[in-house]
Structure formats: C-alpha cells, structure tokens
Design brief:
With 232 residues, the chain is an alpha/beta fold. 33% of the residues lie in helices and 20% in strands. The chain has six helices and eight strands. Strand 1 and strand 2 form a beta hairpin.
Length: 232
C-alpha cells in the first residue's frame, strides 16, 4: 500500500523542513507538490498526498511554517485561521518559491510535476505557476487569487470553488472564470470554502468527489502524458 510518511528536505541555503511524502507502489506517472492551507501541514494534507499516490503520482507537501517555527499547526477555528494568516504573512515570495523548488527537486526524475494548493496555499500555487516552469496546476479555492487575477499561469490549470464560499464570493470566482477563459474553473453548487477537507465543518462530500474526479482526469491529460521534468 502507498504510505504517508514524514521526511525532511533541505532548502538551497541548508535549512531543513518537514514534508508529508507518499509514493505509488509502481512507477510514478508524475509528481505533485501540495501547498497547505492557513492551518499548516495538517493530517488532511498528508491524506491528500496518499490520494495522489493511490492514483499513481509521487506527492510531497512542505511544512511552509518551518521557515520560522518547526511543527507549527493551527487548530480549525477562527483563532486558528487568524494565527495561520499571520504565519503565512511572515513568509516571503522567495521563501515559498524556495520550498516549491526544493520539493520539485526532491521528486527526482519522476516526469511532469504539478503544483496544487488549498486556501492560501492555492493563492501561492497561482502565483508560483505564473512565475515558475511547472507542468500543471490543481488549485482548490485559492483565497486571494482575485487580488492577483491579472497573473497568467504558464501551465495548464484547473480550479475549484464553491458557490457558497464566504472567503471567495461567487462573483469573484466568476470573475476569474471570465478573465481566464482558457482555464478550467469549476464552481460547485452548495459548496463552501474548504469543501474538500473532511476535517472541517464545511466539507461537502459530493463536491469533493466531483472535484477529485475532474482533477484526476486533468492530471492524466497534462502530467501523466508529460515525461519532461520541470527545471526549476
């Protein structure tokens, strides 16, 4: 069975950080780097890595807050979200892009590598895919994408938003879809923010299942068929 394990990776400057890592049983179809939400590197993000490895992809998710404090995970609460916002604010673009590059390198000669992200991790996923050479983007309810709507991803992109998201209102999701007609922007009826996370009260199992099936088909098309390793 594919496994979820904690491992360590080093940044270019030598600082090490924790990751969730999960690898498929057989040869990988490709790889994916997963950026966590404001709460940090939760068990849920590790479970997402396992889902990707079950589908045949080598998956790694960095503990971004390790840049300033190791093993920092915030609770699923308003106070936890507020603390997570501050934790993300303490990180620079160079910090986060450095984590992404180190994770891509750690995957080795796996073929194409996608970048995914949830919530604020989705915002950074959007920003990174407009700046770095990555194979594809799988974006779950990127919180501040509307503030960076003029950026243009350099790779194929799929995005998932709920029409009842209180962080990214429906009008903003529709603006993204209108601004970027070549991007697959899916809007899920009755789904709120964090609908993919079964650990949160806003989990919507039907929307999560459909988003997952769409993401798998997208990865099969754009990553599994692409054997070129990104040169980050």
């Amino acid at each position: 069975m594919p496994n979820k394990k904690r491992a360590k990776i080093s940044l270019q400057g030598g600082q090490s950080f924790d990751v969730w890592r999960s690898d498929p049983v057989g040869p990988a179809k490709g790889g994916i780097v997963v950026l966590h939400a404001v709460y940090g590197l939760t068990d849920h993000i590790g479970d997402v890595c396992v889902k990707w490895s079950d589908a045949g992809y080598a998956a790694v998710a960095p503990a971004l807050y390790d840049r300033h404090k190791a093993n920092l995970v915030h609770p699923y609460s308003r106070a936890g979200a507020d603390a997570g916002i501050e934790s993300y604010r303490a990180l620079t673009e160079d910090d986060i892009f450095g984590f992404i590059k180190a994770c891509v390198i750690s995957l080795g000669e796996v073929g194409g590598v996608a970048l995914s992200g949830f919530c604020t991790g989705g915002t950074w996923c959007w920003r990174a895919c407009a700046a770095l050479e990555l194979t594809a983007q799988v974006n779950f309810y990127g919180s501040h994408v509307p503030a960076f709507i003029d950026l243009r991803p350099r790779c194929p992109t799929i995005m998932h938003y709920g029409d009842s998201d209180t962080i990214v209102p429906l009008g903003d999701a529709e603006r993204i879809k209108s601004k970027h007609p070549n991007i697959d922007v899916h809007i899920y009826p009755g789904a709120g923010h964090a609908f993919f996370n079964p650990e949160q009260a806003t989990h919507n199992s039907a929307a999560a299942a459909l988003a997952w099936q769409r993401s798998l088909a997208f990865m099969e098309k754009h990553v599994a068929s692409n054997k070129q390793v990104p040169r980050v």
